[in-house]
Design goal:
By secondary structure, the chain is an alpha+beta fold. Helices cover 36% and strands 19% of the residues. Strands 8, 9, 10, 11, 12, 13 and 16 form a seven-stranded mixed sheet that branches. Strands 2-1-24-25 form a four-stranded parallel sheet, covered by helices on one side. The chain has a four-stranded antiparallel sheet with strand order 6-5-7-17. The longest helix is centred in the C-terminal third of the chain and has 21 residues. The chain is globular. The model has no long low-confidence stretch (mean pLDDT 91). It binds one RNA strand through helix 7, strand 9, strand 13, helix 11 and helix 20.
Length: 813
Amino acid sequence: MADRYSPREIERKWQERWERDGLYRTPDDDPRPKFYFLTMLPYTSGDLHIGHWYAMAPSDAAARYRRMRGYNVLFPMGFDAFGLPAENAAIKHGIHPKKWTYDNIERMRGQLKTMGAMFDWSREVITCDPEYYKWNQWFFLKMYERGLAYRALAPANWCPSCQTVLANEQVLPDGTCERCGTPVTRRDLEQWFFRITAYADELLDHSKIQWPEPVVVMQKNWIGRSEGVEIAFALEVPGVDEKEIRVFTTRPDTIYGVTFMVLAPEHPLVPKITAPERRREVEEYIELARRETEVQRLSTAREKTGVFTGAYCRNLLSGELVPIFIADYALMWYGTGAVMGVPAHDQRDFEFAQKFGLPVKVVVAPPGWDGSPLEEAYEGPGTMVDSGPFTGMPSEEGKGAVARYVEEKGWGRRRVMYRMRDWLISRQRYWGTPIPIVYCDECGTVPVPEDQLPIVLPEDVDFRPTGESPLARHEGFVNTACPRCGRPARRETDTMDTFMDSNWYFMRYLSPHYDQGPFDPELGRKWLPVDQYTGGAEHAVMHLLYARFFWKVCRDLGLVQGDEPFLRLFNQGQILGPDGQRMSKSRGNVVAPDEQVERWGTDTFRCYLMFLGPWEHGGPFTFQGIQGIWRWLNRIWNVALATPRTDEAADPLPLRKLLHRAIQRATDDMEKFRFNTLIATLMELTNSLTRALQEGPVHPRAWEEAVDSLLLMLAPLAPHIAEELWERRGRPYSVHQQSWPSYDPELARPEEVTLVVQVNGRLRDRLTVPADISEEEAKQLALGSERVRPHIGERPVRRIIYVPGKLVNIVVG
RNA sequence: GCCGGAGUGGCGGAAUGGGCAGACGCGGCAGACUCAAAAUCUGCUGAGGGGCCGCCCUCGUGCCGGUUCGAGUCCGGCCUCCGGCACCA
């Protein structure tokens, strides 16, 4: 018997050997078909946690499998290195964000290497490196040129006590500052946006990608397209120039039910139309709304609030005059910032009307309605009533009819609205990509010329929170010369949202040090788009939507071909603590992967994560089960190195059939990322081989074929032990350069099947029969069964149902 | 509230173009090896009941109903948990 399985020794040994040999360097000039396998890069938080392992280890197995299937596989890794936690660490512990980040990268890179993954480290990308973010700035300029980057006034979270802008993550759920507990207010600042809404309709089209349906649905909901009509209401306030208020509605069929009008508090018409005697109350309400955080304001549980402006407007269709209110449930950034109040057919309007004693006028009769007052808004379809010329029309039809009428009269037009807003990319933060813009008193907003990039983030910055954006206090950074006129000018001091970094990192992997553009276009043509992307579902809307948008911009810039960056997507589940809760330091349920690797070895830990359950499910990490994987790998060790009693005369078929069935199932599972059942299949194969070993002489070539195939199928899952055993069995280095075993369908097909015999649908007997048994034979066999006959008794057989290879069901009585 | 996803033994989970429920593993029980323990190996392990105990019967996939010869799987109505969105006119 060979010596014992000792993961610590062999794992270090092979990791060193693989690195020395450049086994996982992906050549760009390889004749095999390319396959770009991408897994999301980690944020440089400090330690590689179990979630990273759960995301990456199965991805590695799948990438290795692709490689064994004859593809030239690119499987790169990098670090998402800009972001708030680095800055917070600096504020809290006085460590410079750069040092904090690079120290973390150093540690995490080491941890990643213990995984034994086939990452091509020569392509590593670190997003906080000027070599990388230079191209963030370059992209920004391209977008600015095309009008896709613009500056506008937008509200930001503002802490009046800290005198600083806060990121959304720094605002606690109760709307207070995470540092000082002061209620956060909103403050309007000039900020930069990317015009993602210009691509809204294209982003709604997921027909060219194979993504999990839930992610597609989430993106569609996020974009939130709705078709409706913009309609004018006549404004008849003396001394006001504006003669109309425009509203957006998806329910033009309810227009005769309008009993009031609501404007958003920020609506520009409000100060103009407010009656003198209402002015004080209106201003107070506006101030109140301004002080509220978005979270508070959008809370649906709250009772409706609002104030009457004293002004009226006229419904052009009905000719009725209705009062104009302001209320914070009307949102300035959606539609026109004005809502027509139809309490009978909109629950929000209904609640508002109840509160303010406004009339509820039914114009779409619910089926079977007796004319009595409504208890709540009726939002379904019905027959239009009390609606002028449209009375009697089904409301669904009325939508189009009213829209046409309104368009004919020139009172409005059909419009499409989106829930999605443009992407605000400005962050009043230090640790991010500087926005390449200069403000000049003479020339205004001036983009930094390309040849002056990168604008390097200065390191000698006072990033402690003193009430200003850190870069704004750095004289050497802020003060510059206008690129256009040369006169003194000021740099933009905001930095970019870090989602900018993840927009295109997968392009940078192709040529991480290329300096003529974001990536070598020739390599772009070769490798892009990504064939398979894996990562957490938490990125369903933000990252994955931004990256699709960005790709389409790149396509329009002529940088990439095709419409989508990630052809196939897979979301792994989330790994929980042993208590079934989210892992967190405060709960004390964090499982450190390093300890598990130390104890069991990487191969065992990797396989265990894959064996836990379906990859997309995730679930609690428990310590008991890992033992089972350890035992299994030991059994493989023993089987692979055993010297069986062999006999040329032994029948090779049983072993071969067993093996080829296993290969068939394993291949199918690999294709579908079903690692848990894949491992179960390999366990069964291992157990069968162990039994064959004990039972007697085996056919020598069938045995060798079976053991070699087992190791080949093990290789993507547990790369180190597979390599070690492959070598010990005298096979040529490396197991990872071999082909995935193929199966012979003839051998994989079972010769005998178990035929289930039922009487009236209840299981009564199992018969082992040849797979090619005829229907007639099967029925006769079933009827003749000793176990079946008593259940038929004297009752007549009415029907016999036969499912080939599966069952016979005898219907009696 | 709306939109997704999921509910199967003591536990993680298998099995869905309807057809053997519980593969594989953990845990548990019993045995072998051992002075003993660990490790390893073998057997049993959904619940209930009956036996002429190497056998049989009944029940059983969140709940209620339906379709079907047959439902974990399909349909209708609920319940619970998880995730996302949440006054989007």
